[in-house]
Design goal:
single chain; alpha+beta; 9-stranded mixed beta sheet; 6-stranded antiparallel beta barrel; binds alanine
């Protein structure tokens, strides 16, 4: 079936079942400030569901233009698009679950001819009714009905909502095999239709109430159903997209040089984004830096990047007539506005080229300093964030020059940014709304506590979670009308503290400012329920704040001290300030010497002791620069800036919180200095109470070392030197004795007493007893048969080989005889030992020779 026919068949079917066909509303929502763009078929009917307006009929059907900006990153797979057409049937009190499921099943199987065995419905875990209905109506056994927690739908943070039942189509094993492929997971099971059972309303204060008349809202994605009915491998192969994709492919001059995966991704992006942009512009959206205009600009720029990557001749403009040929017949506003649409797209193309030219200059600077062939994540991020230079372009240009980009770091920075941006998004489960945050008045420079009111609360949604009330243990982001909380920025971490209200309390874990002028407090509710409109007392944790202030002020003093000591060549690159520690990065070609660090620390601490007064001035950027205030070289500042000074010692552009007088810092310790990149050094520092704790740790460690060395703390160093000396000597001795070990035979003398070999090792100094025996053994094994005598100082050892023992000789007796005149000796037949005097070696040996000689005579 052609997409035209699918659209017609759907609408006809529902017309035949008593529904009134209504035309699509524009993509810009009418009378609905909570949404940027229409994101579902039901959006134009919200007031009907809520009972605020009477629908022309209790049953409606439509094919509605829809746009989901939040899916933009997903575009490139088989089934996601930003702009799409949603086919729907709606009931306002006319029917509910049973009829909705009956219609859906009949249309899919009888009109569209889908195989019932390939349909897999899902329901909300609480919705037994729908699960049973699928059995009764479609004969689908309950084990084929998946229960999904996310089967709950609402169009935005407030408004009608309810559980839903989704219909998945099994595309077959070629789309994925294995147990991880199931409805809701993997590509094999494609969601084609969602039946929402609207029976509740979410109120602005977060409560959910029942609607007077329960209704039905369904949405079937035309592109996906076309994919199934046309037997395509993706939505981009359907008649809705294929001509657009082919047009781009034909105009590309780089199609062969990029890999197939990249090529597909770029072509899908181009098709989706070009189509989406056409539809947005046709409905009156123009590129801008905020709101829906930003969505359009973002879409176009991503498409332009892909067009650049594939080197598409003519860019996006020529795709407009192709889109018009597909959708212009259905949407007259597109057909009628084609010229304007094309003009807007081409204008944006030109602007983007300008951005690229400007970005190129920056890229050159960045590439020139890409030490070791690596562009830092911070540089790539800045190109993207400040100059609008797309990351993909940076990557491609870098690759062409054999330079890499630190993508992991960029990803980290983007995640941080996304986390902030997420705060702008609503709670909508379908993720379709973009809300601007209400403003917050910051009062935290002068006070740590303020009475305030919550202007917006939204949950921190994690994978698989749905919206819930802001009750105990839940984590929420709250925007306040006034706030004493400093939001993370300028290197300083966000404040922590508490919010309190009658009957409730929440911890503030962190504070961020996702966009200027508004503060988002990440809260964990301890007690009670946090709601928009609630009056609260907001209190900053004074200990945390004091720690941050001490470190931040100390960082300014350190910056000034560095300039004094190393000269104006020092360029600050960034800093991180928390209540526990601070780091300070700067450009410098080499490591600082120990003397330089000591000098720096002294200058820093003497500035602290001078108890310099902190002053704050509000100046224009120009005035501030002329007054000699230090600033981050690559930061972009507003025209009006805040300058923080300490006496005449330090003067810096800064929005952070500081101590009132430098003496409040107490002291600062530089704990480390090391490299964090070529030409980039980092100093680590602790200040204030953290410096005290650092000392305490050091002292405890020293005391423990002294205890283990059994030396008074003052003598630890001498004791360690002594130990090191001893270890060196022992090592030397060990070496020596190892070297001597195997050479007994060489050191020994050998003689014959008749047929008996006598080997003698005569050492002047004493050996340990076991070494004496070991060396006798060693010598014995080296000579084989015979008698061994080892003399070492005042010790003697005799060892006989077994053949001599067999002939009746006895080593113990020999030792006894040889040592009789000294101190005596003894032992067994193989081994004997005894004491001699140092001067008696010769006499003892004489005795041995005599005994050996007489044994021969006896034998
Ligand atoms: N409004 C429902 C959706 O968009 C049908 O999925």
């Amino acid at each position: 079936l052609l997409s035209q026919q699918i659209r017609a068949e759907f609408l006809n079917y529902f017309e035949q079942h008593g529904h009134l066909r209504v035309p699509s509303a524009p993509l810009i929502p009418q009378d609905d400030p909570s949404l940027l763009l229409v994101s579902a078929g039901m959006v134009p009917f919200k007031a009907y569901f809520l009972g605020q307006k009477t629908p022309p009929q209790a049953r409606l059907t439509s094919c509605q233009k829809a746009f989901r900006a939040t899916d933009i990153d997903a575009v490139g797979d088989l089934s996601h698009d930003t702009f799409f057409e949603m086919l729907g049937n709606f009931s306002f009190g006319a029917y509910f679950k049973e009829a909705a499921i009956t219609y859906a099943f009949e249309l899919l199987t009888q009109r569209f001819g889908l195989d019932p065995a390939r349909l897999y419905p899902s329901v909300h875990p609480s919705d037994d009714t729908s699960a049973k209905l699928w059995g009764k109506i479609a004969g689908i056994p309950s084990e084929r009905v998946t229960r999904l927690e996310e089967n709950f739908w609402q169009a935005g943070p407030t408004g009608p909502c309810g559980v839903d039942s989704e219909i998945y189509y099994d595309l077959g094993e070629r789309f994925g095999a294995g147990a991880d492929q199931r409805p809701g997971r993997g590509e094999r099971f494609l969601e084609i239709w969602n039946l929402v059972f609207m029976d509740s309303e979410r109120l602005p204060d977060g409560r959910t109430v029942r609607l007077a008349h329960a209704g039905v809202d369904t949405g079937m994605g035309l592109e996906r159903v076309a994919m199934v009915l046309q037997g395509c491998a993706s939505i981009f192969d359907t008649d809705l997209f294929a001509p657009i994709r082919e047009d781009f492919a034909n105009r590309s001059r780089q199609l062969e040089t990029v890999g197939p995966a990249q090529r597909d991704r770029h072509l899908r992006r181009l098709s989706d984004h070009a189509r989406g942009a056409c539809m947005l512009i046709a409905d009156g959206v123009l590129p801008a830096n905020e709101g829906r205009g930003y969505v359009l600009r973002h879409l176009l720029r991503r498409a332009l990047v892909s067009a650049m990557s594939l080197d598409v001749a003519g860019g996006l403009g020529p795709a407009v007539p192709v889109v018009v040929s597909i959708l212009g017949g259905t949407y007259s506003e597109l057909a009628g506005g084609a010229e304007r649409v094309r003009a807007v797209i081409q204008q944006e193309d030109v602007r983007f080229q300008e951005t690229l030219v400007r970005g190129m200059e920056q890229f050159e600077t960045v590439a020139a300093r890409a030490e070791g062939g690596l562009i830092t994540g911070a540089d790539a991020f800045r190109l993207h964030d400040t100059y609008g230079f797309p990351l993909e372009v940076t990557e491609e240009l870098a690759a062409a020059r054999g330079i890499r980009v630190d993508l992991a770091q960029v990803e980290e920075l983007l995640t941080q940014q996304r986390e902030l941006a997420r705060a702008r998004r609503s709670t909508a489960v379908a993720g379709t709304t973009l809300l601007e945050l209400p403003p917050t008045e910051f009062v935290g420079y002068d006070q740590l506590q303020a009475d305030s009111r919550v202007s917006l609360v939204y949950p921190v949604l994690r994978e698989g979670e749905t919206y819930d009330h802001a009750g105990a243990d839940a984590e929420f982001d709250a925007v306040l009308e006034r706030s004493p909380f400093y939001a993370e920025g300028g290197g300083q971490v966000g404040d922590r503290g508490t919010l309190q209200w009658p009957g409730g309390a929440a911890l503030v874990l962190d504070t961020k400012a996702p966009h200027l002028g508004s503060r988002v407090h990440r809260c964990r509710v301890l007690q009670g329920e946090l709601k928009a409109g609630q009056e609260v007392v907001a209190t900053v944790d004074p200990v945390h704040r004091a720690g941050c202030a001490a470190h931040h002020s100390a960082t300014h003093l350190l910056n000034a001290a560095l300039h004094r000591q190393l000269g104006e060549g020092v360029v600050q690159r960034g800093s991180m300030v928390s209540s526990e520690r601070a780091t300070f990065d700067f450009n410098w070609p080499r490591a600082l010497s120990a003397e330089e660090l000591v000098g720096l620390e002294r200058t820093l601490n003497s500035a602290i002791r001078e108890d310099l007064e902190r002053r704050v001035e509000h100046l224009t950027l120009d005035e501030a620069r002329r007054s000699g205030a230090l600033a981050l070289p690559e930061e972009t500042y507003n025209e009006d800036v805040r300058v923080v000074s300490f006496g005449d010692f330090s003067r810096e552009l800064c929005g952070g919180t500081h101590v009132q007088r430098s003496g409040q810092i107490g002291s600062a310790i530089l704990t480390a200095e090391h490299s964090v990149g070529s030409g980039l050094r980092r100093i680590e520092m602790v200040a204030g109470a953290a410096a005290e704790r650092w000392w305490e740790t050091q002292r405890t460690q020293t005391a423990e070392i002294a205890r283990q060395l059994r030396a008074p703390a003052g003598e630890v160093r001498a004791r360690v030197e002594e130990l090191q000396e001893r270890v060196r000597n022992l090592e030397k001795e060990l070496d020596e004795s190892r070297r001597q070990g195997p050479r007994e035979a060489e050191a020994a003398t050998r003689e014959q007493v008749g047929a008996i070999t006598l080997a003698i090792l005569d050492l002047p100094s004493q050996l340990a007893k076991k070494d004496l025996a070991r060396r006798a053994d060693q010598l014995a094994s080296e000579i084989g048969q015979g008698c061994v005598v080892v003399l070492a100082g005042s010790d003697l050892a005799v060892k006989l080989s077994p053949d001599l023992v067999a002939r009746g000789l006895n080593a113990g007796q020999i030792a006894q005889a040889a040592c009789r005149q000294f101190g005596g000796g003894g032992g067994n037949a193989q081994f004997g030992q005894g004491g001699v005097s140092a001067g008696g070696h010769a006499a003892a040996l004489a005795t041995v020779r005599t005994i050996l000689g007489s044994s021969l005579e006896e034998g």
